[in-house]
Design goal:
heterodimer; A: about 290 residues; Immunoglobulin-like; 13-stranded mixed sheet; B: mainly beta; Maltoporin, Chain A; 3 domains; 22-stranded antiparallel barrel; 7 helices; globular
Chain lengths: ~290, ~850
């Protein structure tokens, strides 16, 4: 009897299992994707490819059809050229969607990037690089804590990012922990759980909406690789608003990709007629030894 | 001047003193002689004769005598004929411009009050109607079966007691002073085969609108999913109330979210109403006596949620004899017992149910493996009558779901549970005043965890969230006079929230790595209310109330003064117009990723940053009763505005919300409006309703959908439902539901592209169209069920056979995309519930 009931139940369960319909919709966006992080003092680079495409290393390696132009003061100042990055694995090369220029980004400057490719909609974006900010820095090696005292400029809306980078060849990002409620920590990692309400992750973002025009102190805890005393670089970046919004939404996309229940959303970019971002920042660097 | 006045007065007296003279009598139109033949007349035919001599006779049809009249002579005055048609002591007759007006004689007011109960079990009945036809006055029993009816004093009056499924009780009583009258009504089972129209015409007289009470007997005749009737799934068939999706037992009322419904089980809030991830609700229909849903025109007594108040009352237990029921279906087994602990004094109810497949499956699992899922719940209630004026109830509910999977040393668990407890004390202070004190406790807890034991150490995590409520409330009802019924009261609740705590064990061999992120938050929720039901005249009635709420959390104190107004105007004996306005506040919020009421959804408190949600709702409607056809009709239009809504930010994940306030968007707005039509058939053999809803609901958040307004996830333009049952005989009945609705809104992917990820890898990103800008295809489904009943010497047995989704309609549950190799997007449309036959066997004894 017990078996009979069990198998009856199994039958009902099979009848009730999910059924799936599949259909395909052609993606005809004809749009370009650009991702370009402008850092004051660095040459301007970009990543650009057609939307709706997946990498095919055989094809993409030889793809040189996209033209990227850099503008300043309504004049073309540079043409970005495709660059071949070093293969990161034996017999595997990165595709030719990386572009470089010889122009060095300047603080306070405004640039425009345009992208052209046959049969696709031209894309463009405009971005200004904010001025760097110099904080007061206090290092507390005994508690693995860095205190940053930031005086905010009340005349404009400001955004900041903080990151710790291990200055080895790989430039590995060091996980950080913040307690300040106005700090948004992105790319959290569950193996660095704080002992109270702090949040941990790889990149901290701050908007000045909570301390506009005031001085505020932020404490950040870092977690070096156990036992190593390689130098760590603290990078405090002054971000444009576009940069801040893009980073936030990109982190959301990362969560969406790992959690089916997450609220879905789009990347908040600033490319006209395209996807991605052309965003600027100015860095302040501070190096220290953790031990 | 004074002398002249005295002379005029004397002349008037002289004239009036001679009115008996036949010639002078003609000056009073009511003394007009009227000729008719001797014999028996129906009162309304006498009125027709009178109307030949006057332009009209104005009266309420309820005033008319029901018995036939015998005329002994051929000539009567109009006054004499009117006295024959109406009770001359209770009514007065006047003329105005050749119109006769019949009105009740003014007299002192008396109050008849008491309890209405089931004569067989002694169980008190909620929502029974008490009606005095002669005075066109009515009352309804409250949630403890108490009523108070104010009447003009008379030698005697007839009072009708009606309750769905029970025989109508007509009593003629002396009504000269205040009277206590407890009435028992009998179940209508002996008349099952009769085609009879129920005397339920009160819906047009009641001020209350947007209100639906579910008859628990009819519910059992409707199709049952997997052999188990469900009160929440039945509410989903009412216009304006829509389900989340196929697997959901949540309700979306008039464009509201799932958390905007207050579910009260014996006055205790239940925070999670789902078993089996939402397929079933936590309410065992065998333990329930009464259920109702209010979706607008809220009373001042109600508060704390924006969209609906759902009251579920457990049975009190039979005071006279012990009986029970047991049932089994492919999914679960149930047992209910009730009876007296002390006859006519104290009763009990115990009801329990549990799924059993985890127990059966145990024998089929490999060694070192454990896999199982179960849900179960228990309802217990004790009812004690101290004396007629004092009564106490204690009720308890617990229900839990648990899923576990253990393979060798790896162990995963998922559990959620509700606990509620209520202690209620009724006090009939006097014939006019009824009081009730209630103390309650409610808890909802969710827990999930993973443990891996290897090399002598244990690693894993344990996550839990919890909400607890401790509450005390007191309510007074006072019958001031025939025109006014006052209700006042207060409610205090202490909320304790733990909206997400994680314990992590990183390996016992490396030391004490147990880390706790507890985030306990407390809040005090206090409200007071006062409400007056005012019968302004025979046609017009109003209900006006004020609900004052305070919410203390941290250093923040929120106040709100919420007006509640409703009015009803009876056009004639069949039609009434109704309107209402209600403002509601909600201080507790549910953060939901899915919107379908999963146990992972977090309950959180208002705070400095998060204001209580607020809604303003206006409803206009009409109600009609077509007694001859056993039909009633309700048509309502509503407009609801919502503000201070919250939502998860894009990408927020419930497991990572140690600082949940940073993971949400606040200050959202919403709008919902629509038209609802409900047509009910109330003939005994053929019962049920059809409903139609035309509605629109939107949301606006500054950081979602570029700040543009977008459709609410469960916005459905058209929603048609029918729920019909036909009783062929006491042995056989059949029920069918058919549901048709516009497709559910979803956010459709429109493009995809590749970008660098922070770790240097290249990932695919999907570009979505506007939020909820696309629609699933339309939804429709037919369910049927058949009950075969048979009486036995020990009681009765019922075989129920139900088929869910009879014609196996493929209704999309979700649409998702996966990366394809080319430039095209491939969509996967998943359906989860095809045709599902089931059965249940039930015995009652």
């Amino acid at each position: 009897m017990k078996k009979c009931i069990f198998y009856t139940w199994l039958c009902l369960l099979f009848i009730s299992c999910q059924k799936e319909n599949t259909y395909t919709v052609q993606a005809n966006s004809k749009k370009l994707v650009i991702e370009s992080y402008l850092t004051a003092g660095d040459t301007i680079k970009a990543f650009c490819l057609p939307a709706g495409r997946h990498f095919d290393y055989n094809i993409d390696f030889n793809d040189t059809l996209t033209q990227l132009l850099l503008w300043a003061d309504n004049q073309i100042i540079d043409t970005l050229f495709p660059t071949l990055r070093l293969p990161n694995m034996v017999n595997q090369s990165q595709p030719l969607y990386n572009f470089s220029s010889q122009t060095v980004a300047k603080q306070g400057a405004t640039y425009r990037l345009t992208a052209l490719r046959d049969e696709l909609v031209p894309a463009a974006s405009l971005e200004s690089i904010p001025e760097a900010i110099v904080p007061q820095v206090n290092h507390h090696p005994e508690s693995k804590k860095i205190s940053l005292r930031i005086t905010d400029d009340a005349s404009q809306e400001n955004f900041y990012a903080i990151q710790f980078i291990n200055q080895t060849i790989d430039e590995e990002i060091v996980e950080l922990l913040a307690y300040h409620p106005s700090v948004e920590v992105l790319y959290g990692n569950s193996d660095f759980i704080p002992d109270d309400e702090g949040t941990s992750g790889k990149l901290a973002l701050i908007s000045d909406r909570f301390f506009n025009g005031e001085t505020q102190t932020f404490d950040f805890y870092y977690r070096p690789v156990s036992g190593s005393n390689t130098p760590i670089k603290l990078v405090l970046s002054a971000l444009s608003k576009n940069y801040y919004q893009y980073e936030l939404s990109k982190a959301s996309q990362y969560s969406i990709s790992i959690d089916l229940l997450s609220e879905i959303g789009n990347l908040k970019g600033n490319i006209e007629n395209g996807y991605g971002a052309f965003i600027g920042k100015s860095d302040y660097n501070y190096s220290f030894f953790p031990l | 001047m004074t002398v002249l006045k005295k002379i005029a007065g004397a002349l008037l007296l002289l004239v009036l003193g001679n009115l008996n003279h036949p010639v002078l009598a003609q000056s009073n139109p009511l003394e007009k002689p009227i000729t008719l033949s001797t014999g028996w007349y129906a009162p309304d035919s006498v009125i027709l004769i009178l109307e030949k001599h006057f332009s009209s006779v104005n009266f309420n049809s309820n005033f008319l005598q029901s018995d036939s009249i015998y005329t002994k002579k051929s000539v009567y005055t109009a006054q004499q004929l009117l006295e024959l048609c109406f009770n001359s002591k209770e009514y007065q007759f006047k003329t105005n411009k050749n119109r006769v007006i019949v009105s009740p004689v003014k007299a002192s007011t008396i109050v008849i009050s008491g309890f209405v109960s089931d004569q067989q079990s002694g169980e008190r009945l909620i929502g029974a109607s008490i009606y005095c036809p002669a005075q066109n006055t009515s009352a309804v029993t409250n949630s403890f079966g108490f009523y108070s009816l104010a009447l003009q004093s008379r030698d005697s009056v007839q009072i009708k007691f009606n309750f769905i499924g029970f025989q109508s009780q007509n009593l003629r009583i002396a009504a000269q002073k205040n009277l206590s009258l407890d009435v028992g009504v009998q179940v209508e089972s002996q008349q099952l085969n009769e085609v009879k129209i129920s005397g339920k015409s009160l819906n047009i007289k009641a001020v209350k609108m947007s209100y639906h009470a579910l008859d628990m007997t009819s519910l059992k005749q409707l199709p049952q999913f997997m052999g188990e009737g469900d009160v929440i799934r039945t509410f989903q068939l009412i216009p304006g109330v829509q389900p989340g999706n196929d697997l959901s037992s949540t309700l979306h009322v008039r464009g509201g979210s799932a958390d905007q419904n207050l579910l009260l089980l014996d006055d205790v809030p239940v925070y999670n109403s789902s078993h089996l991830f939402g397929i079933f609700s936590v309410f065992n229909t065998d333990a329930l006596k009464h259920s109702s849903l209010s979706k607008g025109g809220f009373s001042a007594l109600e508060g704390g949620r924006l969209s609906s108040i759902i009251n579920l009352n457990m049975k009190e237990g039979d005071l006279k004899e012990t009986h029970g029921s047991a049932s089994i279906s492919p999914l679960l087994a149930k047992l209910t017992l009730e009876g007296p602990l002390a006859k006519n004094k104290t009763s009990y109810l115990i009801a329990g149910r549990r799924t059993f497949m985890d127990l059966l499956a145990k024998g089929f699992l490999p060694e070192n493996t454990d896999l199982g899922y179960y849900f179960g719940d228990a309802n217990v209630k004790v009812n004690h009558i101290v004396n007629r004026k004092h009564r106490m109830y204690a009720s308890f509910y617990t229900g839990a779901d648990a899923f576990k999977i253990r393979v060798n040393e790896s162990d995963f668990k998922l559990k959620w549970a509700n606990y509620t407890f209520a202690l209620r004390y009724n006090h009939l202070i006097n014939a006019k005043t009824f009081g009730n004190l209630t103390l309650t406790y409610s808890q909802f807890k969710f827990n999930t965890g993973y443990q891996l034991k290897e090399f002598g150490s244990t690693t894993g995590f344990d996550y839990f969230s919890k909400i607890e409520d401790y509450s005390a409330k007191y309510r007074l009802e006072y019958r001031l006079n025939a025109q006014h019924l006052l209700k006042v009261g207060m409610n205090y609740t202490r909320h304790q929230f733990t909206p997400g705590s994680v314990d992590v064990n990183q390996g016992s061999t490396t030391g004490n790595n147990l880390v706790n992120v507890a985030n306990l938050q407390q809040a005090d929720d206090l409200f007071y209310y006062a409400e007056d039901y005012w019968k302004i005249n025979e046609r017009l009635a109003a209900q006006a109330g004020i609900h004052y709420a305070q919410y203390f959390t941290g250093e923040q104190n929120y106040h709100s003064l919420q007006p509640r107004l409703a009015a009803s105007y009876q056009l004639n004996h069949a039609w009434a117009l109704k309107s209402s306005f209600s403002q509601m506040n909600q201080s507790v919020h549910q953060l939901s990723n899915s919107g379908v009421g999963l146990p992972t959804d977090l309950w959180v408190s208002s705070s400095d940053r998060i204001h209580p949600q607020q809604s303003n709702q206006v409803v206009l409607g009409t109600a009609a009763n077509f007694k001859k056809h056993g039909l009633s009709l309700e048509v309502e239009v509503y407009h609801k505005s919502l503000k201070h809504l919250i939502s998860y930010k894009e990408g927020a994940n419930f497991l990572l919300v140690s600082n949940w306030e940073n993971s949400i968007e606040t200050n959202g707005k919403g709008t919902a409006y629509g038209l609802e039509i409900l047509l009910k058939k109330e003939i005994k053999k053929f019962q049920g309703w059809i409903g139609y809803t035309l509605s629109k609901s939107t949301r606006t958040f500054s950081n979602i959908n570029e700040g543009k307004s977008y459709p609410f996830k469960y916005d459905r333009r058209h929603y048609f439902t029918s729920a019909l049952t036909y009783r062929f005989s006491s042995k056989f009945d059949i029920g069918a539901n058919w549901v048709y609705s516009s497709g559910q809104a979803y956010t459709a992917p429109i493009d995809h592209y590749s970008l660098n990820q922070p770790d240097g890898s290249i990932s695919q990103f999907i570009e979505y169209g506007s939020r909820n800008g696309a629609r699933f295809k339309d939804y429709h489904r037919l369910d049927i069920s058949v009950n075969f009943n048979k009486k036995k010497s020990w009681g009765s047995r019922t075989w129920n056979i139900s088929i869910y989704n009879v014609y196996n309609q493929f209704n999309p549950f979700l649409i998702h995309t996966e990366n394809s190799s080319g430039s095209d997007l491939t969509f996967y449309e998943t359906s989860v519930l095809p045709i599902i036959p089931s059965f249940a066997y039930k015995i009652t004894f």
